[in-house]
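Notebook entry, cofactor series.
This is the third protein in the set we're modelling with a bound small molecule. For this one the ligand is zinc ion. I'm keeping the input format identical across the series so the outputs can be compared line by line later. Sequence and SMILES below, as received.
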Amino acid sequence: MMHAMTRRQRGAAAIGLACAMAMFAGVPATAHAATAGGSPAGAGDPYFPLAGNQGYDVAHYDLDLDFTPATHVLNGQATISAEAKKDLTRFNLDYSGPAISRITVDGRDATYSQDGQELTVVPAKRLKSGHDFTVKVWYGGVPVTIDDPTLGIYGWIYTDDGAVGLNEPDGARNWYPVNDDIGDKATYTFRITTPNGVNALANGEQQGPPCVNGDRTTVTWNERKPMSSYLSMVAIGKFDVTNGRIGNLANVTAVDPTSDGDGAVLQSTTAEAIAWEQQKFGRYPFDSAGGIVDKSGVEYALETQGRPVYDGMPDTDTIVHENAHQWFGDAVTPKTWRDIWLNEGFATYVEWMWDEEHGGPTAQSVFDKYYAKPAGDKFWKLKTGDPGRDEIFSGSAVYYRGAMTLHQLRTTMGDRDFFTLLRTWTEKYRYRNVETKDLLDLAQSISHKNLKPLFDAWLYTEGKPAIP
Ligand SMILES: [Zn+2]
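Returned structure with ligand:
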């Protein structure tokens, strides 16, 4: 265990330095194979067919966001650096945020139209395959939070003193134009302007001190590691921020002072969880860690990259779970939403592993408790490996049976091979996108066992699997 050294700050550090607006040069994201041909709307996700787009690959998002909590007005300027994967006379972005006033492509005004979440952009000049291009979108107004009948509240969410952007699964379009393809990872810069005294946090690392200009403050955050859009996040409001460390890793935690959050406990438990997870799964995949407690009212915690967001003070298992996602989900990300169990099954199983090693029940006893449910119980309904669009957050099918699948894999492979699998999986596929077959192939190559029957029974068959 490691104990973090902490230094507390309160409120936005109003340091009257000149506004240094040095731009972060985006690092090209992991190559993403764009699908050739077909409609440019939608990247082909089986559950979210309109999400993402074809024909280009985003490398970097530079988001200038100006938000006023009292009026809810969000003014944005998004600069998207991308590479054309085929010749494009037009292309699509996903967007359902406030009104757009202007779009340019490579500095020239472009025409555009909107139909639902599809924003179609027609550049003045055809984009050539293999060439980089830059899209700038200016927009402003009051975003309307997404409230989905089955997936709940997400996107741009208002709080008492600010707002928070929480996107899983397809909410990024609610506050910036995006290629909302889970497979198109990119780096990000967030330049967030608010009234003085209001903090703004995001993924990645803060670039220099906040910059005060009259009655407004601007703070810049850079996420330098590839990130799926559903993991991007900003949190605006009053926060008590703690800057600690986990070894060499910065640990930035923040707590809404009007919430039930305990900043010291959030900081130390996050450090303890990540130190343990690094022993199990290899080095932490991002350049900084942390966590944010805000009163968003969403009633979930989300594993936003490098810095999960909690709706109220989380318990230890929740901190372990959301930080496990940094390896399982954030660094190694499914290619499509159908494979959501690769996120939630792993993060749930890491909780079982943590409990087993910290005086709690063994993973086997947790497995046994769920396995005791009779075959007719609705717990066994749905396919863990293909639960359906409305059931991607199903506790029984995706979280518990996902974790049970991993426990069966552990029992079959043996502890040594199973823990080798976890480390190899996170190292081999770091910053990439995966499908279940990649896990099966890796598990089989490590164990020299035929594991296909196990995967078929636990992931692709409804009903209670038999244990051989
Ligand atoms: Zn989770």
